[in-house]
C-alpha cells in the first residue's frame, strides 16, 4: 500500500506478532507459553477497543445451563447460516474460559448467595449472561487482562502503532510493516495473529471505537487470504439517539430489554407484538428492522425504550454506566422514556478461519470481530462476541504452541532478507476527510438495515470510482491509509450483499424499491 524497504527504519524479531489489543488479542497473548516472545500492536491505546466498550455481558453455558440449548439459540439467531461445529466449540469451551477469567481475578457480579449472577438477553432461552459491575463487563475483563499482560515479561505492548501490511514469503506469513508518525517499523515473526476488530467506522452511525476501520481485513485481502460472510453487518437496535453528527453513539445494552425494557414508538405505543412473539427479546436483526419500520411509519428518527416501571434503585445498581450517561444527556431513566435508534454495531464477516483460528495463509491467524469463524451466521446472538474472542484466542495459542517447535525456520524470514515495495502513486491533493465522510453516508443509506439491488449497485459504483482514485494517490499518513482500507473493505461488503440474493438475519433484501 505504501513505499517501503525492510532495511529502512526499525527491525525487530518476535515469535508471535498480535495485531490488535482487544479481548481476542490480549487473551491469545496471555494463553501463549511464556517462553515465547510476543508483540501486541495497538492502533490506538490498549483501552480503545470495542471489547473495552462492551456493556451487556458474556454468554456462557455453566452450571445447570443446557449447552444444547445455547447452541440452538445461537443457530436460531444466526438464521442457521452458522457453522455448527464452530458453534459447538464456542459453547462447549465457554465454561473453561470463564474459569480462567475468574482465576485471573475478573470480578464477575454475584447474587446474595455468592453465585454468579446470570441475566436474560434477547434471543436467549434462559438466563446465562454474566456481567461485571452491572453494565461495564468489557471494561472489567479488559482491565484485568491489560494488567496481567503488562506484568508478563514475554509480552511487549506497542500503542499508537498502525499496521500497514502483512509481509509474506514462501507462501506464508513472516511479519508486518507498521507505521508511527511517518516512521516505518518492521516486525518479523514466526506467527501473526490478526485481532484488529470490526468495521463500524465505515458507517455514519455506529457504536464502534474510532479505530475500527477494517484495517486487518483489508490487509488480509491484500495477501489473498480467504474472506467470508462480508454482507452480514449487525445493527444494534438501541443506541442512545443524538442529533450530533460524526460521534460514536452510546449503546443502550441488550440487558436493559432483558430486565423488562419496553419499546414504544413516538406516540407511546408498544409495537414489538406486531413483529415477533418474543417481543423485545427477539434477536437483534428482528428488533432492529421493527424499529426501522416504526421510524419510517411515524416519520421519526428514533423510538423509545421504556424502563419507567423499574425502580430507580434497581436501575442505578444494575445499569450504573447507562444511568449516568442518560442523566448527563438529560434523560432520567426512572421517569423518562429513552430515545433510541438502530446503528451499526458488529460485523459477522471477515477473515475466514477454521476452529483453530487458522486462515488460508500459513501462519496467519485471526480472532475476534475481524475473524469469520462461522459462529454467528447471519446475525450474532447477544453477548456471544466476548466469548468468541476468548474461546478462539485460547485455541489459537494452543495451536501456535503445538506448531512452534516443529516450524520450519528460515533465516531469510528473521529480518535477514530485504523486501522492497514501490507503489505507483502520483496524486497528493485528494480530500481524504470528504472521501471518508461520503463513504460513511452512502454505506448507511445504501447498505443498511434493509437493502435493495439498485441501492447496492449505486454504492458499489461510488466505491469503485473512488478506489481508482485512491490507487493513484500517495498514502503517506495513517488517516490516508485508513481511507484506502475502508474503501477496499466496503467494496467486498457490497459485492457480498449483491451476490447473496437470500434474506437472512442482518442481510435483508427488498425485491423492489418501495
TrEMBL record:
Its main location: cytoplasm. SUPFAM superfamilies: FAD/NAD(P)-binding domain (SSF51905), Succinate dehydrogenase/fumarate reductase flavoprotein C-terminal domain (SSF46977), Succinate dehydrogenase/fumarate reductase flavoprotein, catalytic domain (SSF56425). Gene3D superfamilies: FAD/NAD(P)-binding domain, Fumarate reductase/succinate dehydrogenase flavoprotein-like, C-terminal domain, Succinate dehydrogenase/fumarate reductase flavoprotein, catalytic domain. Residues 437-508 form the Fumarate reductase/succinate dehydrogenase flavoprotein-like C-terminal domain. Residues 15-386 form the FAD-dependent oxidoreductase 2 FAD-binding domain. Pathway: Cofactor biosynthesis; NAD(+) biosynthesis; iminoaspartate from L-aspartate (oxidase route): step 1/1. The keyword Flavoprotein applies. It is found in: Cytoplasm. It catalyses: L-aspartate + O2 = iminosuccinate + H2O2. Its EC number is 1.4.3.16. One of its GO terms (cellular component) is cytoplasm. This is L-aspartate oxidase. It comes from Caldanaerobius fijiensis DSM 17918. The lineage of its organism: Bacteria, Bacillati, Bacillota, Clostridia, Thermoanaerobacterales.
Amino acid at each position: 500500500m505504501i513505499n517501503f524497504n525492510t532495511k529502512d527504519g526499525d527491525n525487530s524479531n518476535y515469535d508471535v506478532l498480535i495485531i490488535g489489543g482487544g479481548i481476542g488479542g490480549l487473551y491469545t497473548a496471555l494463553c501463549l507459553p511464556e517462553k515465547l516472545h510476543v508483540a501486541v500492536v495497538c492502533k490506538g491505546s490498549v483501552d480503545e477497543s470495542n471489547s473495552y466498550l462492551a456493556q451487556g455481558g458474556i454468554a456462557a453455558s455453566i452450571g445447570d445451563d443446557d449447552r444444547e440449548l445455547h447452541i440452538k439459540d445461537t443457530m436460531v439467531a444466526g438464521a442457521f447460516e452458522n457453522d455448527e461445529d464452530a458453534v459447538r466449540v464456542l459453547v462447549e469451551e465457554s465454561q473453561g474460559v470463564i474459569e480462567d477469567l475468574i482465576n485471573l481475578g475478573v470480578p464477575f457480579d454475584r447474587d446474595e448467595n455468592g453465585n454468579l449472577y446470570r441475566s436474560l438477553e434477547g434471543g436467549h432461552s434462559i438466563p446465562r449472561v454474566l456481567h461485571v459491575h452491572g453494565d461495564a463487563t468489557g471494561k472489567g475483563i479488559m482491565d484485568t487482562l491489560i494488567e496481567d499482560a503488562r506484568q508478563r515479561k514475554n509480552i511487549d505492548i506497542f500503542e499508537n502503532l498502525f499496521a500497514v501490511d502483512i509481509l509474506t514469503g514462501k507462501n506464508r506469513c513472516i511479519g508486518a510493516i507498521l507505521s508511527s508518525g511517518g516512521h516505518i517499523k518492521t516486525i518479523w515473526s514466526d506467527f501473526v495473529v490478526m485481532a484488529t476488530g470490526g468495521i463500524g467506522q465505515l458507517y455514519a452511525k455506529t457504536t464502534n471505537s474510532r479505530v475500527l476501520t477494517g484495517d486487518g481485513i483489508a490487509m488480509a485481502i491484500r495477501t489473498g487470504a480467504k474472506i467470508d460472510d462480508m454482507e452480514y453487518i449487525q445493527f444494534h437496535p438501541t443506541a442512545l439517539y443524538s442529533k450530533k453528527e460524526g460521534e460514536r453513539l452510546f449503546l443502550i445494552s441488550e440487558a436493559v430489554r432483558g430486565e423488562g425494557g419496553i419499546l414504544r414508538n413516538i406516540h407511546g405505543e408498544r409495537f414489538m407484538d406486531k413483529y415477533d412473539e418474543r417481543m423485545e427479546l427477539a434477536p437483534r436483526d428482528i428488533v432492529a428492522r421493527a424499529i426501522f419500520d416504526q421510524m419510517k411509519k411515524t416519520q421519526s428518527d428514533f423510538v423509545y425504550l421504556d424502563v419507567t416501571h423499574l425502580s430507580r434503585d434497581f436501575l442505578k445498581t444494575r445499569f450504573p454506566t447507562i444511568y449516568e450517561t442518560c442523566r448527563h444527556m438529560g434523560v432520567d431513566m426512572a421517569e423518562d422514556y429513552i430515545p433510541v435508534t438502530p446503528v451499526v454495531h458488529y460485523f459477522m464477516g471477515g477473515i475466514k478461519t477454521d476452529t483453530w483460528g487458522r486462515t488460508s495463509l500459513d501462519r496467519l491467524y485471526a480472532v475476534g470481530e475481524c475473524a469469520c469463524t462461522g459462529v454467528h451466521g447471519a446475525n450474532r446472538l447477544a453477548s456471544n462476541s466476548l466469548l468468541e474472542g476468548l474461546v478462539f484466542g485460547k485455541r489459537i495459542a494452543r495451536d501456535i504452541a503445538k506448531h512452534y517447535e516443529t516450524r520450519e525456520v528460515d533465516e531469510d524470514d528473521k529480518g535477514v532478507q530485504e523486501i522492497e515495495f514501490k507503489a505507483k502513486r502520483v496524486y497528493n491533493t485528494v480530500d481524504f476527510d470528504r472521501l471518508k465522510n461520503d463513504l460513511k453516508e452512502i454505506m448507511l443509506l445504501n447498505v443498511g438495515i434493509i437493502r435493495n439491488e439498485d441501492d447496492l449497485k449505486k454504492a458499489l459504483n461510488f466505491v469503485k470510482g473512488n478506489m481508482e482514485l485512491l490507487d493513484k494517490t500517495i498514502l503517506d499518513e495513517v488517516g490516508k491509509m485508513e481511507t484506502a482500507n475502508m474503501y477496499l473493505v466496503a467494496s467486498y461488503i457490497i459485492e457480498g450483499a449483491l451476490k447473496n440474493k437470500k434474506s437472512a438475519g442482518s442481510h435483508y433484501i427488498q425485491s423492489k424499491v418501495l
